[in-house]
Amino acid sequence: MNLKHRILQALGCSMLALGVGGAAQAQTTWDMPTPYPASNFHTENIQQFANEVAEASGGKLKITVHPNGSLFKANEIKRAVQAGQAQIGEVLLSSLANEDALYALDTVPFLATSYADSLKLWQASRAAVEARLAKNGLKLLYSVAWPPQGIYSKTALSSMADLKGVKIRSYSPTVARMIELMGAQPVTVQAADLTQALSTGVVSANITSSSTGYDSKSWEQLDYFFDVQAWLPKNVVFVSKKAFDALDPATQQAVSKAAAAAEERGWKVSEEKTAWYVAQLKANNMKVLPASDALQAELLKVGEKMTAEWVERAGADGQKILDAYRAAR
Predict the structure, then answer these.
(1) Are 174 and 107 in contact (CB under 8 A)?
(2) Span of the secretion signal (predicted)?
């Protein structure tokens, strides 16, 4: 083989190697742990988001969704994304309240009880949430609200006295505080473990949405759902900033555009499905009732106390957000 042929062969091998390397880089895969079942509307929305990212990026980025805590449990997801064990994840925002009081804002009882008010609360607080996540190397992509929260019980409730000493499932520090102020006993149970916790008596009541009540088939252990509409908690989807920054600009744009669409779609679906979830509870012989006047009055007092406590913990930043929200209502 003469010198010319050897040079051409070497160039050919180099180009082949570059081509293979380029293809590998173009086929980036992200793992996305999520806490809820594949059939939950949040997870369905996430799967659509992942599909849209794959399509818009021309297959350059594939997001593999791992639902129902199958890859990491709910309380492990944020840490896993921060550590690079996963690139993108979903958590309940208020589950992070022990890190920063701001994360608890959307679970302050009776502060925002409708979709319209909940969205205004999110708009008032979003920039602050983004800044706090950024300190942990995370980029906020979008958020979607859950249906309004109610109280599930085995027995009828006429006042908070009926809950004294009852073990009630909690999913965040704020919810635990509310349960304590109601005279009951909070027990932290993740959504993926709720069915088992109810069936084994770990908890005998629950504060959650009609959606989670449906997912966990709460009617198999509980008889009542008091639709008090205490708050609308939100899930947030975030990505490792390092992983996001490693994408080319066009793929970054595809992710951001799909995230904006997922937020708009998710809020709409959440509101539309609320009535359907409540209807399913009724169809399975669960008694769906409003709170009695006495119970509602007691709960509102709990909400007032917890609002004051939240402002004290959140400080000037929290007061500024609360003022902006109230001005927008």
Answers:
(1) yes
(2) 1-26
